Amino acid sequence: MFVVSGPSGAGKGTLIRGALEHVPDLAVAVSATTRAMRPGEVDGREYHFMSRAEFARLVEQGAFLEHAEFAGNRYGTLSTELDRITGTGRSVILEIELQGARNVRRVRPDSISVFIEPPSLEELARRLRLRATDAEEEIEARLEVARTEVSARDEFDHVILNDDAHRATDELVSVIRAATGS
Ligand code: 5GP
After folding, report:
1. Do residues 145 and 8 make contact, with C-beta atoms less than 8 angstroms apart?
2. Residue 138: which pLDDT band, with cuts at 50, 70 and 90?
3. Where residue 37 falls among pLDDT bands split at 50, 70, 90?
4. Is residue 97 lining ligand 1, measured as CB closer than 6 Å?
5. 58 lies in which domain range?
6. What digits encode the pLDDT tens for the residues 88-103?
7. Spatial distance between the Cα atoms of 38 and 42, rounded to a whole number of angstroms
8. Closest residue (by CA) to atom 3 of ligand 1?
9. Which of these, 28, 33, 73, 104, could form a disulfide with 47 (CB 3.0-4.6 Å)?
10. Quick check: CB of 6 below 6 Å from ligand 1?
11. Test site for ligand 1: of 16, 37, 97, most ligand atoms within 8 A of the Cβ
């Protein structure tokens, strides 16, 4: 299992999508979240979108490998998602924030963790505003969390600096290939 973490806006999603094109037998687990759907997102594709009540019910049922609160919303990795992917012989990638990555490290010590680092916090702010999917208040909350996340980079098995998406994707592919022998 691969855990890809790093601040919101660091480019985790882009690098993972790039890696999926190069590595066969690899799939991303679709997380559950309580955050509002962004334009262009599809329920069941980017996330399983749900109410806080439904999320809480799943927590109570023990349905999550890990879950965390991030910038006012809840996010979690569903165990059924992992079974769906590994059941077909594929490796799983999780794209999750810092608390989740720490929890996965505890319950799955054999997982390989990768931190995607933005070139700077200024660049991160620029990318989040460029993306323009979140309200300014939300962006501020994400930048605040980003400071803590960047200071935890050394906890990860690999750190990939995303100053150039092509090079960073190649680096992620190398990490995955080295671990899976593919
Ligand atoms: P966004 O709202 O931008 O899609 O995601 C916010 C943050 O939550 C990102 O850092 C993303 O990687 C993280 N995240 C997405 N899914 C999960 C999950 O299942 N568990 C945890 N812990 N974090 C997640």
Report:
1. yes
2. confident
3. very high
4. yes
5. 2-180
6. 999 999 999 999 999 9
7. 9
8. 8
9. 33
10. no
11. 97
CA-CA distance, 49 to 41, in Å (whole number)?
A: 10
Which string of DSSP letters, residue by residue, matches 104-147?
HHHH-TT-EEEEEEPS-HHHHHHHHHHH--S-HHHHHHHHHHHH
Question: Which residue among 96, 103, 129 has the greatest number of ligand 1 atoms within 8 angstroms of its CB, and so is best to mutate?
Answer: 96
Residue with tokens 């680092």: 117
Q: Is the CB of 76 under 6 A from ligand 1?
A: yes
Residue 53 token pair: 């009540």
What is the number of structural domains in the chain? 1
Q: What is the pLDDT of residues 41-58, one digit of tens each?
A: 999 999 999 999 999 999
CATH of the domain at 131: 3.40.50.300
Per-residue pLDDT band at 107 (split at 50, 70, 90): very high
Q: Which atom of ligand 1 is nearest to the CA of 68?
A: 22
